[in-house]
């Protein structure tokens, strides 16, 4: 079995395991390349269907291209799309110019997500994070339990042997399930190429610039690049040394911003 | 270049330099992104320390300030020969469950021993865990040769003791390599200071490992879930061994009814006639009703039983007392049960004799036990079909032990 097929099968196994275990689950779709790949894998796992809601956490600061892409494919793929917004904070003017990046991400993303989980009572969320993205994400489990305060207890994570994922204990409020944790950025692009997965044009070069990682528009910087198709992106990554999230402002504020955000329940 | 990545776990006692070794390996092979190096340099300056290669792996604030590894980290690394997933495991006894979690994903291991402290309790324990998990490809690195003046005599003395210990636990190291992770000697670059050593560097030792081959065995298909798709009932699961073919007759275990594969389905891949080990598929079955946890098998080779005889490793700090209820999880099978008999138990890190016919198992101990279950399961010896020969025990939703069926 080739490398990409092995990665795909591992992901599908995890997705089906989460669905069997909890039934009442949802997946987070940021509309970026990773969660769009996850969404593709979910469709493959369930023979073309997506049998649970797809949540888009909308900070209101996303790129217009992302909203357009979201609406187009939500319709095309028949998704049960839930848009989650922390309305109170959006109205109060929370944004990248106000407070720290940590505060803004925490309010507009983590707390928006908390509201959605509380409202719908989801028992597990599928997330498209990957171990090679960030040193903190390298330490995640595939099935990661969260308590009622959403806390990630990174100092005492459960054992996870082979493909046996932890059952639900009394204190577990919900699980974060990470079906593409084992893929690298390059794996994702090669899989996108093989499967012909549609993506927003933000990743492709325009006037010598493209985005390598996307989130909220004010907090993402494009990189210098002439890669205008997936083949060229793969060639560029194979010769590049810079890390994927070098353009993400939240990682720069403090060496431990990602750890702090994640321990509070950030994706 | 080989297609698949090889998963390698780095184990050994506290402070023997596991994280430093990986950081050094990345640095010396130019695998570190420049901003990562900048971040590590900045944090080291803030903490008033010299450049600490371990911080490449130890990313939690607590890990850096306390100078320890708390949890496993998976990182990705490429040589001209192949891709690697390198799993850094913590060395403390209290984080043993994390070390076992990491090792359970590995096909090969590097065991670190360092010159000043030599073989420690955790060295022995890790060595035994590797052996239990069936990891046969192990290279040993003797680290901190710089602190031993790069002395051949020190190395040979430690090498002899390493060979005794590994042999006792059934492991034959492919190489024993003298290195200095801190100074980068014999990690990715051949050391002049260790010129008396003629074997491979650590990086060459890594490249000498072989990827696990998938052997041709009888088909096994644990049922994961049942779906309805396009008006058709599909039995979802992953083929754990062998090949499934359209028209094939299979036993449904543990009930021993028979079913026929009327179709093999994958999304966007019509007309599949067969599928192989490792593939997730949906089956159209004729002749039997199946449910999650049933094992579809080409033969009646699996044992159908309510008693499991196995070696287990106890991972949590709370001890087990005979009779405490547990949940047994093997492939997609799950059954309630308890340990009925503890034939023998021992601490692989200690010289003490094993205790026979005991009523308890303590943290980090290994035990040979009989587990009785409330329902029949289909199991096999780990050496025959690994996926049906290994299991996890849980108590109140928490994994407490892993086991290997003997």
Model description:
The complex is a heterodimer of chains A (267) and B (406). Chain A folds into 2 domains: 3-183 and 253-263, Rossmann fold; 197-250, no CATH class. Chain A is α/β, with parallel strands linked by helices and 267 residues long. The two termini of chain A are 31 Å apart. Chain A is 37% helix and 10% strand. In chain A, helix 1 (3-22) packs across helix 2 (33-45) and helix 6 packs antiparallel against helix 7 (230-239). In chain A, strands 3-2-1-4-6-5 form a 6-stranded mixed β-sheet. A two-stranded antiparallel sheet of chain A has the order 7-8. Chain A has helices spanning 3-22, 33-45, 64-76, 87-91, 101-120, 185-195, 230-239, 257-263; strands at 25-28, 54-57, 81-84, 124-126, 143-146, 174-177, 209-210, 223-224. In chain A, helix 2 (33-45) links the parallel strand 1 and strand 2 (54-57). Chain A is built from 8 helices and 8 strands, in the order αβαβαβααβββαββαα. By secondary structure, chain B is an alpha+beta fold. Chain B folds into 3 domains: 6-208, Rossmann fold, CATH 3.40.50.300; 220-297, Beta Barrel (Elongation Factor Tu (Ef-tu), domain 3); 303-405, Beta Barrel (Elongation Factor Tu (Ef-tu), domain 3), CATH 2.40.30. Helix content of chain B is 18%, strand content 37%. Chain B contains 7 helices and 23 strands. In chain B, the strands form 5 sheets. Chain B has a 6-stranded mixed β-sheet with strand order 2-3-1-4-5-6, with helices on both faces. A 6-stranded antiparallel beta barrel of chain B has the order 7-8-13-11-10-14. The longest helix of chain B is centred in the middle third of the chain and has 17 residues, at 152-168. At the A-B interface, helix 1 and helix 2 of A face helix 2, strand 2, helix 4, strand 7 and strand 8 of B.
Please give a quick description of this structure.
The complex is a heterodimer of chains A (267) and B (406). With 267 residues, chain A is α/β, with parallel strands linked by helices.
């Amino acid at each position: 079995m080739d490398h990409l097929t092995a990665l795909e099968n591992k992901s599908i196994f995890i997705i089906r395991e989460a669905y069997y275990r909890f039934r009442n689950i949802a997946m987070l779709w940021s509309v970026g390349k990773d969660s769009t790949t996850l969404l593709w894998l979910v469709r493959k796992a369930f023979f073309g269907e997506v049998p649970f809601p797809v949540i888009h956490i909308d900070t209101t600061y996303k790129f217009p291209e992302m909203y357009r892409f979201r609406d187009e494919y939500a319709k095309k793929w028949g998704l049960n799309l839930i848009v989650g917004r922390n309305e109170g904070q959006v109205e109060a003017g929370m944004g990248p110019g106000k407070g720290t990046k940590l505060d803004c991400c925490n309010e507009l993303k983590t707390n928006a997500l908390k509201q959605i989980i509380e409202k719908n009572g989801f028992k597990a969320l599928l997330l498209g994070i990957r171990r090679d993205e960030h040193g903190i994400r390298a330490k995640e489990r595939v099935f990661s339990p969260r308590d009622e305060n959403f806390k990630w207890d990174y100092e005492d994570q459960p054992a996870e042997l082979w493909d046996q994922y932890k059952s639900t204990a009394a204190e577990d409020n919900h699980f974060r399930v990470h079906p593409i944790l084992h893929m690298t950025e390059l794996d994702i692009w090669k899989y996108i190429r093989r499967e012909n997965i549609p993506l927003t044009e933000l990743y492709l070069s325009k006037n010598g610039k493209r985005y390598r990682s996307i989130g909220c528009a004010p907090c993402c910087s494009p990189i210098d690049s002439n890669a205008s198709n997936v083949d060229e992106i793969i060639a560029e990554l194979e010769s590049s040394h810079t890390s994927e999230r070098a353009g993400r402002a939240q990682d720069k504020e403090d060496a431990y911003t990602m750890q702090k955000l994640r321990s509070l329940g950030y994706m | 270049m080989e297609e698949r990545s090889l998963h390698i776990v780095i184990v050994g006692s506290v402070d023997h330099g596991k994280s430093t070794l990986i950081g050094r390996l990345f640095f010396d092979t130019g695998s570190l992104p420049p901003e990562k190096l900048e971040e590590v340099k900045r944090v080291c300056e803030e903490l008033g320390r010299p450049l600490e290669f371990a911080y490449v792996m130890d990313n939690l604030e607590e890990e850096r300030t306390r100078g320890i590894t708390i949890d496993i980290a998976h990182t990705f690394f490429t040589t001209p020969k192949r891709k690697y997933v390198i799993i850094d495991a913590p060395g403390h006894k209290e984080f043993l469950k994390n070390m076992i979690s990491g090792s359970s994903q590995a096909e090969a291991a590097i065991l670190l021993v360092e010159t000043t402290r030599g073989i420690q309790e955790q060295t022995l324990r890790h060595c035994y865990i590797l052996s239990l998990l069936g990891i046969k490809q192990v290279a040993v690195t003797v680290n901190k040769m710089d602190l031993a003046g790069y002395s051949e005599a020190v190395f040979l003395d430690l090498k002899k003791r390493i060979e005794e210990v590994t042999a006792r636990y059934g492991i034959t190291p492919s190489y024993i390599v003298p290195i200095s992770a801190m100074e980068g000697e014999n990690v990715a670059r051949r050391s002049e200071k260790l010129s008396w050593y003629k074997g491979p560097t650590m990086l060459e030792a890594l490249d000498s490992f072989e990827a696990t081959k998938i052997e041709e065995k009888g088909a096994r298909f644990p049922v994961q879930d049942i779906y309805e798709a396009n008006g058709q009932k599909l039995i979802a699961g992953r083929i754990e061994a062998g090949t499934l073919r359209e028209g094939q007759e299979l036993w449904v275990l543990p009930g021993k009814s028979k079913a026929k594969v009327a179709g093999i389905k994958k999304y966007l891949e019509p007309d599949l006639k067969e599928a192989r080990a490792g593939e997730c598929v949906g089956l159209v079955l004729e002749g039997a009703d199946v449910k999650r946890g049933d094992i579809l098998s080409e033969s009646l080779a699996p044992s159908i039983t309510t008693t499991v005889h196995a070696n287990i490793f106890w991972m949590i700090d709370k001890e087990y007392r005979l009779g405490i209820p547990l949940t047994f999880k093997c492939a997609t099978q799950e059954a309630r049960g308890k340990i009925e008999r503890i034939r023998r138990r021992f601490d692989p890190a200690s010289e003490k004799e094993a205790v026979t016919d005991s009523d308890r198992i303590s943290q980090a101990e290994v035990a040979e036990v009989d587990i009785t279950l409330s329902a029949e399961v289909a199991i096999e010896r780990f050496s025959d079909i690994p996926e049906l020969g290994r299991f996890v025990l849980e108590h109140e939703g928490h994994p407490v032990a892993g086991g290997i069926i003997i």
